[in-house]
Amino acid sequence: AQSVTQLDSQVPVFEEAPVELRCNYSSSVSVYLFWYVQYPNQGLQLLLKYLSGSTLVESINGFEAEFNKSQTSFHLRKPSVHISDTAEYFCAVRMDTGRRALTFGSGTRLQVQP
Amino acid sequence: NAGVTQTPKFRILKIGQSMTLQCAQDMNHNYMYWYRQDPGMGLKLIYYSVGAGITDKGEVPNGYNVSRSTTEDFPLRLELAAPSQTSVYFCASSYGTDTYGYTFGSGTRLTVV
Known about the structure:
The structure holds two protein chains of two kinds. Chain A is mainly beta. Chain A is built from no helices and twelve strands.
């Protein structure tokens, strides 16, 4: 079965510092990978996704993630965070075969401090 | 452009009671999903549907039922509420396959006492 591991439950960081949120997955077949963001008391919103092609994908608000097949990772990075980036971030995976639904990681709470 | 609408937003149930969580989308999405979110556990798939009349179990279906009689609606039924069903429930939909990404509702916070 596929699974997603987010190693850090909380990541505190100061404003304008860089950040990396880690995500590893387990699957023996091709995968599609996603990052979602959840602001307090809201549903999840799609941040970025990897389906195929270039292994580096970017979002409109400065986040990027790199698909690394050999390390089965899809880490999320931002070179300079803002207070408004404070939220919970979820990595998700879907295999190319099997159940047509996403499997989510346990989430990482990003806390940006002034 | 309402997107995915969930009702109610909050509900307190007594053990053994039943209720239906409503979910409606107006984007003509074929795929719809129910997840529950527990602290530190991420989201767990309860049921999903790939089109009207078609539903399938997810990771944690016990204690729940669903139906999909129309493209727009995907209600989730709790027959005999238990404290273990205290959670935040999210409905989501997607166009085509889920590789397009999900649109989530704002959630229903359910407490069973």
